[in-house]
Amino acid sequence: MPATHALAGARTPLSALTGVGPALREKLAARGLSTLQDLWLHLPRGYEDRTALTAIRDLRSGEAAQVEGRVEAVERGFRYRPMLRVAISDASRATLVLRFFHFRAQQVAQFAVGARVRAFGTPRPGQQGLEIVHPSYRILGAGEQPLGEALDPVYPAIESVGPASLRKLIAQALRCLPEESALELLPQAWLDKQQLPSLREAILLLHAPPRDADVALLQIGLHPAQRRLALEEMLAHQLGLRRQRLALQSEGARPLSGDARLVEALLAALPFQLTGAQQRVYAQIREDLLRPRPMLRLVQGDVGSGKTVVAAMAALLAVADGRQAALMAPTELLAEQHCNNLRGWLEPLGVRICWLAGKVTGKARARALKEVASGEAQVVVGTHALMQEGVAFADLALAIVDEQHRFGVHQRLALRDKGSNGVPHQLVMTATPIPRTLAMSAYADLDVSAIDELPPGRTPVMTVALPDRRRDELVERIRVACADGRQAYWVCTLIDESDDVQAQAAQSSFEALQAALPDVRVGLVHGRQKAAEKQATMLAFKAGKLDLLVATTVIEVGVDVPNASLMVIENAERLGLAQLHQLRGRVGRGSAASSCVLLYQHPLSTLARQRLDTLRQTSDGFAIAEKDLQLRGPGELLGTRQTGLAGFRIADLARDADLLPQVHALADQLLRDCPDRAERIVDRWVGGAARYAAA
Ligand code: ADP
Ligand code: MG
Asked: What is the pLDDT of residue 664?
C-alpha cells in the first residue's frame, strides 16, 4: 500500500498508531520515543529463543533456555521473605527449581502437582541443583503446544508500558516501514561491497530474527544487521559534528590580545609550579585565543592532573582584555568547588567572581544576573543555570565547560550562544580520557589536547582486590583508619541504573556500617536525596565532621577531599575500567598514602579479573582507556555507558570502533558527492537539522 507508506513517514507521531492515546504517548515520549522512526530504531536489547525446548538434564548454568516439565513439588517459605519454589522434571529425569519471590495466591494455585509447565529463563546453581529465579512461564493445557517461529525480542523496558503492548506497538510501527528505495540513504554500491544489508532489511531482521539467525552474534551486537545500523548512526554523528565545526568556525570570533600579566601574577602566587603538560596545554589555548575564529578545544586530563588551574589561566586571558569568562560544571557540588578554588586564586588579583546556580534565587539571583549583564562579574561560575534564558553576558569571551561527558553537545552550544559580541571561544575539559582513535570520532568538532602528567609528589593509590567474604576484615581496617584520623569512602555500585535501587543499596550498606562501626561518624549520599541534603553531607565530610562517607556513584565526578585516603568500591567487578578509575581518583589527592579496595563477588569472570588487574597495575588514565577499549570487545556490554560519548542509540564506540575508518571514508565521500544525502542522514539520526543549523 504505497499510499499509506507515503503518509506514514518516519516523523509521523506515534499518536497515529491505533491504541496510542495521550497517556501512552506521554510515557513513550518520556523515553524519547515520539515518532514511528523512534520505534523502528527501538531495538531489542536481547533475544529469547523459544523456538526449541532443552531437556532439563542438558541445562547449563548461565545459559538461557526453554524447558517443559511437570510439577513435582511445591514449597512456600516465609523465612526471611515470601518465597515460592516449584520443582519440575521432564523426560530427561532431571529436576529444575523455579523460584519466585513475588507471587500471588492465584499463581500458587496454578502450580498443582502434575501440571505441565513451559518455562524460560537462565538457570543458576541453587540449593538443590539448578534453579531459575522468576522464569517467564506458562501452564500448558492438554495437547500439543506449538513452539515459537522466530526469536522473541526483549525490548528495553519502558516504565508502565507492558512488554506485550510494547511489542504490539512496535509491530504496528514496522508495518508502516517504507519501501527500501524510500528508506535507504547509503550508496548501494558501497553496501554491496561491505556485504551489509539495506536499512529496511536490517530493521526488520533485528525486530524478528528468523529461527536460523545467528543468535550469538545478535546477543553481542555484532550481527551484520546491527553493524549496518551502528555504522549509519556513527556516520550521522560524524557528519553532524563536522558540519557543526565548519559552521561555527565560519562565524568568527574576536581574538584576545594574549595579555598574560594576570596569568603571571597568578603563577607567582601559586604554591606550586605548573607541570610541563599544564604549560604546554596552556600555551596551546593561548595560541587558539589569539585567532579570529572560535577556539574549540577539548582538554583531556586524568583525575588530579590539574585542569582547573589551566582553566583559571585561560579565564584570566579574557579578564585581562576586559572581557568575561564563564565556567560551567555538571553538578552544583562540583561547580561550587570550582567557585571556591577560583575565588581563592583570582580574588587576590582583584578579579570579581560571580556564582550562579539553580539554587541562587530571588534577590541574590537578580543581583547576580545584573552583575553578569553589566560586566562587573568578570568570571562567572555555575551549573547549567548559566545557560538558561535570561542570563545575558556583557561580553562573554570564553566559555569553559568542565567534565564534558555529562553535558550533551547541545548544552555546550547553548553556552556558546551567550556571546553577545561574536561567538565565544570554547574550552571543554574532561577527566575521562578516551583513546585517540575514539577521540577523533567522538569529538570531530573539537581540537584535542592532553594534560598527560600528574603534579609531582603524588603517591600512587595502592589498589587491592578483595573478595566479598573478607568484608569483615575490611570493616575492621576502616575502623582503624578512621580512629587514626583518616577519612574513607564506601562506594555502593549496582548495574541497575535506577536511582531508587541504588539508593536502597547504599542505605542498607550505610546501616550495616553504622551498626558495625559505632565509633565512626558515617554519612550517606545518594541520587535520591535533595541537592541541599547531598551538599550538606559532602561539606560535612570535607570539613572532617564525618569519617566515612557511604555513597553511590554520585561522587564519581570531581569531588575533592584531600584528607580522604581510603576508598572501598563494592561490586567492583560490575563496573567498567573508566568508571573505576574515575572513582579511585577521589583518593590520593593529598600527601597521605592512599588505598583503594576493590571488593568483588566471587567468582570473577575472566574479563572482570583483567579489569581489576589493570587497575591494580596502573594509574595512568590514558593507558587505562586504551586497555578498556581493548578489553571491552564483543560480549562485554557492561559499562559501555560510562565512556559517556554522545548518546548513541545503537552504536557503541568501544564495540564498533573498528568501523571508524569506514565511517570516516564514507563521510568524506558523501560530503563531496552528495551533501544533501549527508544532510538527510544527520537529520534521521541526530534529530532535526535545525538543532545543528541553529548551533
Ligand atoms: P583535575 O584535573 O582532576 O580537575 P584539579 O584541577 O582539581 O584536578 O587539581 C587537583 C589538585 O592538584 C588541586 O588541589 C590543585 O590545586 C593541585 N595542582 C594543580 N596543578 C598542580 C601542580 N602543578 N603542582 C601541584 N599541585 C597542583
Ligand atoms: Mg576537575
From this structure: 86
